[in-house]
Each structure stands twice: as structure tokens, then as C-alpha cells.
Amino acid sequence: MWVKCTSCKENIYSNDFEDTKNVCPNCGYHFTMSSWERIHIIFDKDTFYEVDENITSTNPIGFPDYEKKIKNMTLKTGIKEAVVTGYGKIKGQNAVAAIMDSRFMMGSMGSAVGEKITRAVEKSLDLKIPLIIFCASGGARMQESIFSLMQMGKTSAVLRKHRDEGLLYISVLTHPTTGGVTASFAMLGDIIIAEPKALIGFAGPRVIEQTIRQKLPDDFQSSEFLLEKGFVDKIVKREDMKNTLSRILALHSQDGREEL
Amino acid sequence: MITAMDKVNIARHKKRPTTLDYIHKIFDEFIEFHGDRLFRDDPSIVGGIASLDGQAITVIGHQKGRNTKENIFRNFGMPSPEGYRKALRLMKQAEKFNRPVLTFIDTPGAYCGIGAEERGQGEAIASCLIEMAGLRVPTLSIVIGEGGSGGALALGITDKIWMLENSIYSVLSPEGFASILWKDPSRSKEAAEMMKLTAKDLKEFMIIDHIVPEPPKGAHEDVDKVAMDIKEKLSMELIKIKGLDTEDILERRGKKFRNLGKFSV
């Protein structure tokens, strides 16, 4: 089976694609990946325990066919909401993680995503172990209107407690990280890491183009652009992510290997 | 019968009273301060120290213009990152001097432009959210016109949230909502109904705490009366918060935002 790279248009043998963790072997383009694909490449084998997997969105404003859409998304992706949360080990070190999935309604944040992220932060507080959030989101979930907006406040408020407790929070920005997610927990990491060439911004590029009526520069809102402007700490390739995270975790750990 | 779209139009009315209109009518004194100490002064957010019944209070708000010229200067009330950083600076100052913080919310949204992104619009808003969540003084926000998206919420992580009767608060504009979900911005009226963005809706959702009544056609009909109503209620609020324990305030604020959202387990 062959897959065409959306960036360099080269045909890639799909087995190669798996080996490279969904990165184009020709141009290095990082394709989006599902939450579980990411969990498999970041966490030590069989160490990740998922929590709160049954939290789902209800339909707070009675948006037509919203429940049906959620159901279809669950059938398509195998997960019930746009984020998977839990805890596990990265090279032997404990971490609580929330891993967003852009296949699920663009990774948009509604009440269920907000609640799961909040509980993940609380889990990190309870267990006193570091928190990692892998962001992948188009922003707020329109179908939940004001409730989506308020999730920005909810997640930021619980992160304030987390910060006051002196715990480590690493935010990993993957393609795409925009809107209400950028303007809340994505930008609140003690350490902010980005995958190469991810789209990261507050307003979407199309909205900006329509507002200012001019074409945007090529690398605008890319990881590299944010690094240059001073908004991310480091760009890390997918193949190096596990190693980098484990090194940062080790530098923040008193004994490094405490048991859960 | 006033529809949701009628309220959207009243909230955006060109004669709608702005933050500075209310500040000057409500407070005995107001000294405006400028700048974020990092880049520049953003005129789309104003702030400073006011006094009411002899008590100093930090007041911050989005500022729209009252005519085209003013609106160009104020960027139609759409702040850049430096606006949020100015707000944040003044809030931290309020914390230092143990003053309550009052914010007026009135923006179509944070500005979408190249410079705003270059200077970290997302980071600026996120910092306001996390800092307001932990601010060690009593806080109150009042939505006086448009509460548009994250750019509005950035001044809204407060102990109490009030809305004027004809103000709106939403995840984005009805036009934007219709355009994203139905690819048709002309269906904004339908979107406005569906979005549940009125003060009444948000009170029913228990997201806001109080609705400030307005004259039938909107606050611009009798701004003195609306300002007096806010002033009276605010005076009572200032008495109530005196002597409140800081830890209690923080715990209540934390709980208020912790409980937002509707989901099933």
C-alpha cells in the first residue's frame, strides 16, 4: 500500500510510514496521529492506564443532530471524545497525560474535553506527578456554544492550582493547535514543546486573511515561527519526543522512579 | 417579543454606552493608567484606579469608540496582546495594593492580525485566564455589550459575573457561528437564536450571577439610570466582600469555574 505525502507529494510505502511514526521519510512532514498511536510511541509498553474514558458530551444547547455526530465520530475513531487521558511511564518515569485527537471533530473542546483535561490536572495534583498535555485542536466546540468558551476558564483555573503546588506541566503542541486551546492550556506549560511545522496560533490563518485582506507569509504560525517569536521552548521531532520528555521528567524528579 | 438577534443588535448599537461612559458615571474619581511596560499602550483596553464610597478599586475594560474616528483609534474594541498584558499588569498591581478588581467586558473578540499573532495573542489571553483564576483580591466582571469569545473571557475569570439585560456572551459571533457550521454567514439570525447568548440564557445556565435591567430599547436610552443601578448594586457588593477571607474567595472562584460544563459520566 502506498500513501501520498500531503506536503512533498512523494509516494510513501505505508510500512515505512509506520516505522517512522507517521513522519514522511522523504521530507520529514509530521502527519497527525490518533491519541492511541501517540500513546504507543511515548509511553513504555503496557504502562498506560486510561481513565475517565466514558465521559461524553451531552447536548447543552440542543444543537440539531449533535448526539448523532458524536456517535458517528465514536464509531469512526474508537474513542468517545476528542481527548484520551490517563497515566503511565515514560522510560520508567511516571506522568499523567492528556492526548488530544484531531480526528474527533477537529479535536475541538467542549464540556467533555474540558472535564477530562481538568480531571487529568487533578490526577496529577493527587498523585503529585508531572502532567503532559499533547494538544491537537481546532479550538472551541461550536455546538456547545458558551459552555465551550467556559472550558478555557475551567482548564486554566485548575492549572493555576497545579502551578501553585509547584508541579511540572509540559505542553506539547502538535498540528493543529489553534483557537481556544491555544488561548488556554496549550500556552500555559512550564515547558512548551512543538512538533516541527505544526500550525499553532490563536486565530486561524483564513480568518486573519479575511480580516486584513492580505496573504500571509509562508511560515506564519508554524512551530518555527513561534520558536523565533519566543513562544515555544523547543521544537522536537517525533522520533526524539519520548527521549526529550524523559530527560525533562528526570531533571524534575526527586528520585526519578517513584512507584504509582 | 425581542429576539436574540434584536439583542445582538442592541449590544452592538452605535450609541451603546462604553466602558469609559460607565466609569465616569459610576465612580467619584478615576485615574487612567497606560501601557503594558513591554511593547506599547493598547487603546482597546482601558484601566486605572477608581473610587467608590471612599474605597479604591481597580477598573479595567474593553473600550469601543463612539464614532468612526474613535473606533479606528480603539480598534473597534478588539485588543492586541499588549492590551491583555496591560490588563494583567493592572490586576497584579491591584493584588499588590489589596484593591478589588472590576472589569467591563465589551468586545467583538481579540484582534485577528499578523502582529497580534507574532506577539502571542494566545499566550496573552491564557495568561489573563490563569492569573485571574488565582488573583488574591475580590473580582467582578460586567458584560456591558458584546462578550465575544476568548478575547472577552480574558477579563472574565471573576468571583461574580453580571450581564446587562441586552448584552451578549458567546463563543463567537452569530455570523462566525453560521459561517463555520453552515458555511453561510447570512443565517446569523438563526444562529443567534440557537447559540443561547443572551443574559437570560446564561442566567438560566447559572453561568452568570446577576442581570442588570435596561430600558426597553437598550441602555443608550437612559445611561444615567443604568449606571446608577450598577453603582447601587456595586456599593452593596463592596460592603459584602469586606472582610472576606482570601482563601475562601479563591476556593469559591475555583469551584465556580470547576463546575462549568455539561457532560455525562
Written overview of the protein:
The complex is a heterodimer of chains A (260) and B (265). By secondary structure, chain A is of the alpha/beta class. In chain A, 37% of the residues lie in helices and 19% in strands. The model of chain A has no long low-confidence stretch (mean pLDDT 93). Chain B starts with a helix and ends with a strand. Chain B is 45% helix and 19% strand. Chain B has helices at residues 4-11, 19-26, 68-74, 81-96, 114-118, 121-134, 149-153, 174-182, 188-195, 199-204, 223-241, 246-258, and strands at residues 29-33, 45-52, 55-62, 101-107, 139-148, 160-164, 168-170, 210-212, 263-264. Chains A and B meet through strand 4, helix 4, helix 5, helix 6 and helix 7 of A and helix 5, helix 6, helix 7, helix 8 and helix 12 of B. Strand 4 of chain A pairs antiparallel with strand 9 of chain B, so a sheet runs across the interface.
Show the helix and strand layout:
The complex is a heterodimer of chains A (260) and B (265).
Chain A lengths: L1 E3 L6 E3 H6 L15 H8 L6 E3 L4 E2 L8 H12 L5 E8 L2 E8 L10 H17 L3 E7 L7 H20 L4 E9 L1 H4 L8 E4 L10 H8 L10 H7 L4 E2 L2 H14 L9
Parallel strand pairs in A: 6-7, 7-8, 8-9, 9-10
Antiparallel strand pairs in A: 1-2, 3-5, 5-6
Helix pairs in contact in A: 4-5
Chain B lengths: L3 H8 L7 H8 L2 E5 L11 E8 L2 E8 L5 H7 L6 H16 L4 E7 L6 H5 L2 H14 L4 E10 H5 L6 E5 L3 E3 L3 H9 L5 H8 L3 H6 L5 E3 L10 H19 L4 H13 L4 E2 L1
Parallel strand pairs in B: 3-4, 4-5, 5-6, 5-7, 6-8
Antiparallel strand pairs in B: 1-2, 2-3
Helix pairs in contact in B: 2-11, 4-6, 8-9
